[in-house]
Amino acid sequence: MIKLDRRLILNFDWTLFILVLIISGIGLLNIYSAGFSLTDFRQTPLYIKQLEWILIGLAGMAIAFFIDYRFLNRHAYIIYGISIVLLLVVFTAGYATRGSQRWIAVGGFTFQPSELVKLTIILALAKYFDRHQIGRSYHLTELFIPFTIVIIPFLFVLKQPDLGTALVFLILFLAMVFFVGLDWRSLLIAGAGGLILTPIGWYFLKDYQKERILTFFGPERDPLGSGYHIIQSMIAVGSGGVFGKGFSKGSQTQLKFLPEQQTDFVFSVFAEEWGFLGGVILVVLFFSLILWGLKIMIHSRDYPGALIAFGITMLIFWEVFINIGMVLGILPVVGIPLPFLSYGGSSMVILMTAIGVLLNISVRRFILQS
Amino acid sequence: MWKIGDRLGGYEPGQFKHRFRMLFIIVSVALSLLVMRLWYLQVIKGDELRQRSENNNVRLRKIKPMRGLIMDEGRRVLVDNQPSYDIVFIPNRTKDIRKVIEKIRALYTERSLTFSTLTSPPDRVKPFVPVLLERNVSMEKLAVVETHALELPGVATEVTPVRQYLNGEMTAQLIGFTGEVSPEDMERDATGKLSPGDIIGKLGIEKFLDGHLRGKNGAEQVEVNVAGKAVRSLGRIPAELGDNVVLTIHSTLQEAAWTAIGDRAGAVVALDPRNGAVLALVSSPSFDPNLFNGGISFDDWENLSSDIRHPMENRSISGQYPPGSTYKPVIAAAALEEGLITPETTFFCNGAFEMGDRTFRCWQSKGHGNVNLHRAIVESCDVYFYNLGKLLGVDRIAYYARAFGLGAPSGIDLTQEKGGLIPTKQWKLSRLREPWQMGETISLAIGQGFNLVTPIQLANVYATLANGGTLYRPRLIKQLESSDGHVVKRYGPEKLGVLPVRPQTIALINKALWGAVNERGGTGYILKRKEQDVAGKTGTAQVIGLPQDEKARKKKRITADLRDHALFVGFAPYGNPEIVVAVILEHAGHGGSAAAPVARKVIDTYFALKKMTPTHEQAQSAAEIRGIAKP
Predict the structure, then answer these.
(1) Cross-chain residue pair A279–B37, CB shorter than 8 Å
(2) Helices A266-299 & A14-34, crossing angle to 10 degrees?
(3) Catalytic, out of B325, B380, B410, B443
(4) Is residue B507 assigned to a domain?
(5) What distance in Å separates residue B102's CA from the closest CA in chain A?
(6) What is the Cα–Cα distance from A252 to A268, expressed in whole angstroms?
(7) With CB atoms 3.0 to 4.6 Å apart as the test, which of A27, B93, B348, B406 could cross-link to B401 if both were Cys?
(8) Is B523 in the same domain as B602?
(9) Domain residue ranges of chain A, discontinuous segments joined by +
(10) Which residues of B touch A225 (CB under 8 A)?
């Protein structure tokens, strides 16, 4: 399983590793700067906790790096199964923390299995499409099993309720299907089906989720309600101007105008303090990371490697796009974290682990070649 | 090793180049969109938005909701709200907090008032982040600050509702306290309704019913002047008041139990066996929940959290103790139902019981002679129950104990309840990796050994006996009412199960429990009232493996924290039980002499109250009048 090979070190993908370190470092600095003024001296400062998460994430990355990804691929269904069981545990044991059903406690930490599922879905889908290569585009009926793989956690997470994560599952599924190819007729049928199902899905949303989506279309009409968040977020970003207000000078941030400013709205803090310049640099960093992921996909030595690399890259891309889009007011407010910047352990650890898998695929193209 | 092209579909490295081109376009377009939007917001609209953010004279103010009241069964108010006037400093143009403080101090001194900050002011202030200067100030000070508003730029007064716990220590763990929401709380909140600065319940009923009690934040858009003072309201959504809670607790009983316990550590639980309503739930030592009003000071918190007597722990639901002899009715029920004994079966007690090479002693070293079930419970003969334990075995004991609700949380309306422990062979093997020893069953039969129960569980065991075999969930909440008095939700009895025990067996045990209080030689004789209506059982729980006989114990000069726990559980009136009382006093010695008097006080109070108000309906209306007369 673990082979300590000199070539693992020699061909290590430093570019990817350093990119991730830089982005996480920016995130850490951002959380420190915002200060998120603690009124309660009994709490550990958030940036210390975020640093802990990064370190745990690096450990996860190391583990994912040393375990040959083909081992992960071989056992993808089992890994997927375990993650689904953890998701089920949230429903039975998660009730203890009343009102929230996303977390389970592991030791002193709380963990969000739905973040793990993002990764295991990719592994399971990659395995399925590798096993069932047909040399042409897939028909709708041939996608029944992969659809099941995604829809089970999708429904669980929707029930929690966590619209953002459910959406990510769906996007991962669509991206993977796009990647392996879907024939035109099936695409049309699926598109029509989706249009019909949308109103039904609306019925299942919680009131506050509906409210958020409705206010997205008219934030100014409800400036005291949930539209207020979108407006404040845009004011925060805009007031940063070209060069930003500077380190820990963001007044919007310090005023606690925003909800979840350290988690889902963390980009508004960054953009307020570092301005357009900082924002562009961050977007470029993410762009490089995503391109690098796609490069790893192209050069993968085998099919499952390419599929996994693609899935992980898409996960990062869509989370970045939806999160920043939401903060900038061009997408509705859904709970999707900004990779490596949002405060939160589960997302950080899982993404770091996913990067470990990418590094793994990247380095093994040299090893598998020989 | 895997070779290129030997798989179905013939994967070639690089075959996804065409996909890459398409993906590159999608990613580039999407991220460019973000950059364009950033450009629009920060460069094109940047100045305008900066104006709105900095010189903007419109602020959104959160209007804090008023938490619901908490009342006892007779609608007597236990928790109220009081306005607290705080003086805050909002750094904007003036940032020198020390100068501002000096100015206020000078103004105070002129009128011989003293300025008291909670903590030393921070060295660095952040623009617009309010700094609390003084909490809960007098009207006099408020007037000083308000009249000198112009000399004190950035200084503002704020009114916030603050909890008032009218019964203080008496109900502290039960009712709990509130505090500012922590980042962890925010992270755990899935409703999206919490925002920084909100006040939420942190313990007890305040925590358990937080969602109902809290109410909903309101908001107000206000126009402020250069000094940062609100001059005009532009729009307002009022805060929604939280729901009021009516508990099943009788505060008179609660007070009786609290007074009876005194400064000893322990717990008292009183239940209505007919429906599981909790009448009193006391844990001692306690703390003053009013310390938490608007943020506890560091010193107070240190004192509370490091107190070795754990005043914040609610012993009545999370204190786990060996049940001692109060466990004997459970063993008796098990042995009778399993057909191992009849009521007439006798065992001879000579003061000791041999088992292998071990000797188990009866508390009565002279022995009880020939005893049947009735006498064995009345006089609490240990040897009799050693024999039953030997006949039953650990797993059959566990089966009946669980049927009585032991070994699992009772489900009372509080967080942090513990489940206790009912051991089985399997449990010991998997937990301690050791096989079960027969001798351990012998100890179990008199409630010692691995057994652990909480006071609420113990009370519920006797409630189940008292009502003829129905296990109810202990309930604390009678009803929820909206702020305008409409009943939002009413809570009724909840049956958890029925004992697998015949009615005649329960009747037999209850009669023996009556005997233990009212017959000569009974261990609970101290509780005998002239009405002869109390039934119950004393217990003495060993803290550690002390030598069992009296002489050896005296030799070992037993210190206070090694002394036995004293227990008493009983119900009344015997014919038609209305109240069950469980008392545990830590390290207080014998159940009969230490715990029974506390139970007696609670039972006497209950009947004294009942005499004053003959029927339930009248009792309620009277309590309602009282509640209005002295809120």
Answers:
(1) no
(2) 170
(3) B325
(4) yes
(5) 24
(6) 9
(7) B406
(8) yes
(9) 7-34+43-369
(10) 237
DSSP bridge partners of B159? B85
Residues B458-464: what's their mean pLDDT?
96
* Nearest C-alpha in A relative to B33: A325
Which residue do the tokens 């490089």 mark? A288
Reading the block at residue B7, the tokens are: 């798989």
Q: Which amino acid is it at B162?
A: V
pLDDT digits (tens, 9 = 90+) for A47-106: 888 898 999 999 999 999 989 899 999 999 999 999 999 888 877 765 433 334 556 665
B490 — contact with chain A (CB < 8 Å)?
A: no
DSSP letter string, A171-213:
HHHHHHHHHH-B-HHHHHHHHHHHHHHHHHHHHHS-HHHHHHH
Chain A nearest-CA distance from B2, in A, is: 8
Contacts of B420 (CB under 8 A, 6+ apart): B320, B406, B407, B408, B451, B452, B453, B454, B457
- Residue B271's alpha-carbon distances to B15, B73, B276, B463, in angstroms, are 75, 13, 6, 7
Residue B580 near residue B466 (C-beta atoms within 8 A): yes
In a domain, B473, yes or no: yes
Give which of A304, A311, A308 is closest to A131, Cα–Cα.
Answer: A304
Which positions in chain A touch B127 (Cβ < 8 Å)?
249, 251, 254
The CATH number linked to B85 is 3.90.1310.10
**Catalytic (active site) residue B325:** yes
User: B381: closest CA among B397, B366, B399, B396?
Assistant: B366
**Minimal Cα–Cα distance from B593 to chain A, Å?**
40
Are B64 and B203 found together in one domain?
yes
CA distance B215 to B69: 11
Strands B266-271 and B487-490: unpaired
Identify whether residues B363 and B475 lie together within a single domain: yes
Instruction: Locate the chain A residue with the closest alpha carbon to B23.
Output: A294
| CA A360 to chain CA centroid, nearest Å | 19
**Gap between the Cα atoms of B399 and B500, Å rounded:** 10
B93 touches chain A (CB under 8 A): no
Could you list the residue range(s) of the whole structural domain that residue B88 is in?
A: 60-247
Nearest to A268 by CA among A241, A234, A242, A243: A234
| Number of separate domains in chain B | 2
Q: What is the complex's ipTM, to 2 decimals? A: 0.88
Residue B3 has pLDDT above 50, yes or no: no
